[in-house]
Amino acid sequence: SRLDAMHKQTTKWIRENQTICLEDLRIANMMKQQHLAKHIADASWGEMSRQLHYKAKWYGRTVKETPVFAPTSQTCHICGNKQAEVRDLSVREWTCSSCQTPHDRDWNAAQNIKAMAQ
Hints:
Elements (H helix, E strand, L loop, with lengths): L1 H15 L2 E5 L3 H4 L3 H10 L1 H15 L2 E5 L26 E3 L6 E3 H13 L1
Parallel strand pairs: 1-2
Antiparallel strand pairs: 3-4
Helix pairs in contact: 1-4
C-alpha cells in the first residue's frame, strides 16, 4: 500500500508541475548513521527520487537537483547570509543575523533549493 501511495503521489506531482526540484542527498551514506537509517528507509527517499526521474521522462518534465553539499538549510533565502550554527539538525527555527528574518529550517531549505534549480 505504501508503494501504491507513492506511485500516486509522484504521478500527481509530475502531472501538476513542469519542473521538480530535489536536494541531491547521498542517501546510501545517510543510511549508515544508525539514528537516521530507519526513518530514511521508512520515508523511501531513494525510491521517490527514482520514480520522479523516470516519470519525468515519460511526461516530458524536468527534475533538477541541487549540488550535493549545498548549505540549503543554513543559507538565508532572503539575503544569502550563511548561518553555521544551523548545521546542527536540532535547530528547527532560526533568525538570520544579517537581515533578522525568522526562518523555519525546512521552508528556508525549500526556497533555496527552488532558487538553485532555477
